[in-house]
Write a structure and sequence with these properties.
Blueprint: H1 7-24, H2 28-39, H3 44-50, H4 57-96, H5 115-129, E1 133-134, E2 140-142, H6 143-146, H7 158-161, E3 166-168, E4 171-173, H8 179-187, E5 192-201, E6 213-223, H9 228-243, E7 249-256, E8 259-268, E9 285-294, H10 296-302, E10 310-317, H11 318-326, H12 339-342
Parallel strand pairs: 1-5
Antiparallel strand pairs: 2-4, 3-4, 5-6, 6-10, 7-8, 8-9, 9-10
Helix pairs in contact: 1-2, 1-4, 2-4, 5-11, 8-10
Bound molecules: zinc ion (ZN).
Length: 350
């Protein structure tokens, strides 16, 4: 007859089996299985501990001490093995993700300002330097501010040139930044010295020099003794600041409903220097902006007394200036979003 196994002998065998299995566990999952097998709630060692009650008092004390020691020894072995397996796993994954430090770095592309915005900021910088303040007006304007208050009543022929997008009855997408003149004069007494950068919209057919949505910078200077000489001095200084000190300027009489007298400012052609070329259509001059002395009717609409104040106003197309300044032939490339074109402006000032 087989003698029942001595409990302490069984315990010793269990401990040495467990140690062996812990050491041969090849993965964290294997190791967890070993832990459950011996130390889990229904584990072999746990089972022996439960059976302690069946032993005699002396044996119980002896075996109990042994089993508890074995339990903590095995826990420690499992922890050690777990750490070793984890380290091995991390090293393996590090190896997989190994980096070739001799490879050239991946260049991170940095965005840059759009040439139109660069141009606009350059324009603004010049006028801010002269003491103008920058304000903004809404893109959706009342027909009144956009036309009537600027001395362009319904019947006025120049209203046809501004083919507009109507938003609702009496509301248009502004066709120029000039309505901001009305807004600023209505909101404060003279003197006024502001520039108004912003987007405008006209129902033009897009071509090399027209786009439907474009940027303008408007300027308005009103005080008690502003003269045409102030206008000429200010805008000539502006043109030389933007296009270079050698630039020659001329003021050519023109017509705008909201200024009287009105003029257009031309600069000597940047390509041929005035000799005549394709860009300047052989005239030696290129048009830069429109300007004039604020029309008395505009002052009246804005609530100013034209007998006591005078002023000048000007407006320029930012895209047009960008074309001239950067030597771009077709305005549409500004809005084609072709990165090969846009990247040429990376790192440029403003
Ligand atoms: Zn030219």
């Amino acid at each position: 007859m087989k003698r029942p196994m001595d409990p302490s002998e069984e315990a010793r065998r269990l401990e040495s089996d467990a140690k062996e299995e812990i050491l041969s566990a090849k993965s964290l999952e294997d190791l967890e299985a070993v832990r459950v097998k011996y130390l889990g709630r229904k584990g072999l060692l746990t089972g022996l501990l439960r059976k302690l009650g069946e032993a005699g008092p002396d044996e119980r004390r002896e075996l109990g001490r042994f089993l508890n020691a074995a339990k903590s020894a095995l826990s420690a072995e499992i922890d050690a093995r777990k750490a070793a397996l984890k380290a091995a796993r991390d090293e393996a994954s590090l190896h997989e993700e190994s980096v070739d430090i001799t490879l050239p770095g991946r260049a991170r592309e940095i965005g840059s300002r759009h040439p139109t915005i660069k141009m606009m900021r350059e324009i603004m910088e010049v006028f801010l330097g002269m003491g103008f303040t920058s304000i903004e007006g809404p893109e959706i304007e009342t027909e009144y501010n956009n036309f009537d208050a600027l001395n362009t009543p319904e019947w006025h022929p120049s209203r046809d040139e501004h083919d507009s997008f109507y938003v609702a009855d009496g509301l248009v997408l502004r066709t120029h930044t000039s309505p901001a003149q009305i807004r600023v004069m209505k909101s404060q007494p003279a003197p006024v010295r502001v520039i108004v950068p912003g987007r405008c919209h006209r129902r033009d057919t897009p071509d090399a020099s027209h786009v439907i949505s474009f940027y303008q910078v408007e300027g308005l200077y009103v005080d008690y003794e502003v003269s045409m000489a102030d206008l000429k001095g200010t805008l000539a200084a502006f043109a030389r600041e933007i296009f270079g000190t050698e630039t020659r300027v001329r003021f050519r009489p023109h017509f705008f409903p909201f200024t009287e007298p009105s003029a257009e400012l031309d600069i000597s052609c940047l390509v041929c220097g005035g000799k005549g070329c394709r860009l300047c259509k052989n005239s030696g001059w290129v048009e830069v902006l429109g300007c004039g002395m604020v029309h008395p009717n505009v002052f009246r609409h804005a609530g100013y007394d034209p007998r006591s104040v005078t002023g000048f106003a000007f407006g320029m197309g930012v895209e047009r200036l960008a074309l001239l300044k950067y030597g771009i032939e077709n305005m549409r490339v500004l809005y084609d979003n072709d990165l090969r074109f846009l990247k040429q402006f990376q790192g440029m000032h403003a």
